[in-house]
Design a protein that fits this description.
The N and C termini lie far apart (40 Å). The protein is mainly α and 222 residues long.
Length: 222
Amino acid sequence: MAPFSKGTIRMVSTEASTTAPTGRPARPSLRWRVVDIVVASVLGVAGGLVMTVWNLVYSPLTAPIEAALPGLQALLYGVWLFPAVLVALVVRKPGAALYGELLAAATSALLGGFWGWTAVQWGLVQGLGAELVFALLLYRAWGLVPALLAGLGAGVGMAVMDLTFYYAGARPEFAVIYAASAMVSGALLAGGGSWLLVRGLARTGALSRFAAGREHAARADS
């Protein structure tokens, strides 16, 4: 029996090909492979574990910032957003940002997070915020700037949810400070942090089956 089915051969060939027969760059495959699902799931669950720990320690860390200027505490809230950007930067497929953030939120809820299953609602909106950015870029741009923009998009989702449900009726100046802080945190912590983490993982060889790992190997060889 042949070790690979015809469908598997077609899938591997599509993933491995980087140039079209004409010599022009081939359009990247948007189909999910089994390895994409597995790695996205592992990263999403790991993100949920980080969220669970962050749930326990964020309050004392952000309290001094909030006391100095209410609303500014959201500058550290990007920790809740990074699974969306991280999974998308690794897997580079439609739905990856949404899947990563939703799975992380669900994992946090299963582990007894403070907000229970309402965390999944936040995960949905935050993941959509990041997903929309990558969709607007046609799932072809995965550098630092797209990562920052995706983190900012997730921050917009978080600000909308928090200001609607947690801070309904807040004063306009608080809402502006909170929203701006959430977006900055999303861009820097979730976006920039995930980009750095992917580069670090690529250097270890852990992403050799992904475009991010191959790009790093190509830069190292050049």
